[in-house]
Amino acid sequence: MTPVTALYGRKASQGTNWITVIAMTGFHIGGVAAFFFIDRGAILAAIIMWAVAGMLGIGMGYHRLLTHRGYKTPKWVEYFLTLCGTLALEGGPIFWVATHRIHHQYSDKEGDPHSPREGTYWAHMGWIFTGKAMHHDTEVLRRYVPDLSKDRFHVALTTWHWVPQVVVGLAFLAFGGIPYVMWAVFFRTSVGLHATWAVNSATHLWGSRRFKTRDDSTNNWLVALFTFGEGWHNNHHAHPVSMRHGLAWYEIDLNYIGIKTLKFLGLAWDLKEATLPKDVSEVAQESDDAVDISDASPAMGELADAR
Ligand SMILES: [Zn+2]
Ligand SMILES: [Zn+2]
Predict the structure, then answer these.
(1) Beta-bridge partners for 232
(2) Which ligand has its closest atom nearest to the C-alpha of 241?
């Protein structure tokens, strides 16, 4: 059995998910190979695709809309953001939402799919390579994601989540050839994965804690920079339903600005927004409420519309 160390947790010995290991290794090799195909257009395409997958897809779509229902959109906008999310190669929407709702329910306790208390490497990427978090049975998915499990689009996209990535990859191949595939698919996806993974590892380890939540979540500007605002993770654990994570003016949160833009365009409404408490005693007060899981997702209880 693998010994528990700071880098390699006890759960790491529970079997290997070979398809994931091979896919991730392939993408990382492609990402490094991109440096042999320097091309200005391809690098620009990578930056655009990074924002499409990481901001529209993961931050605004999978996380703040699908998991926490921090705002409402027309169905077609929800489906479009979800499609963008699949381009991050972080699995289909139902799997992602289930894993993340479980993370909020058991943050840094037994049952958390990716707590750094089980090892830094485990929380970053070990948990998807080994262990059981990749194999939720349908019963678990239905319990944690009853909303999306009834939606045929989300069910289909959860099975076929890799198809949009292949289609986009082939389109880049036709449009710009190998350099575009290397940068806008392999390099961009690998960097995006590490950014999201850092939310699970770094922002449960390093940074400041404005709210005394019962988990180890932190606010980390560097992670926020690479995730379009997801790095204000302590704010988020304190106010899970809020579609705004950067609460102070200096906490730049592009996902929030993106959602506000959708609202401006008439494509989002009912935005749930936390505000900064005025004094410290209020901070402690709010963080006590915040660990109530009914706050974290509509699946656990009623959405606190009235708040
Ligand atoms: Zn967390
Ligand atoms: Zn969350």
Answers:
(1) 219
(2) 2
In which element (H, E) is residue 49 found? helix 40-51
- For residue 236, the ligand closest to its alpha carbon is 2
The closest alpha carbon to 118, from 106, 135, 101, 134, belongs to 106
User: If you count them, how many residues does the chain have?
Assistant: 307
Domain boundaries, the chain: 14-295
Tokens encoding 156:
């289909």
Residue 138 to residue 129: CA distance in whole angstroms? 20
pTM for this predicted structure: 0.87
Among 107, 129, 136, which Cα is nearest to 2's?
129
**Ligand 2 centre and the CA of 33: distance in Å?**
33
Cα 182 to ligand 2 centre (Å)? 31
Report CA(125)–ligand 1 centroid distance (Å). 14
Interval 215-238: pLDDT, tens = 999 999 999 999 999 999 999 999
**What is the spatial distance between Cα 240 and Cα 163, in angstroms, rounded to a whole number?**
30
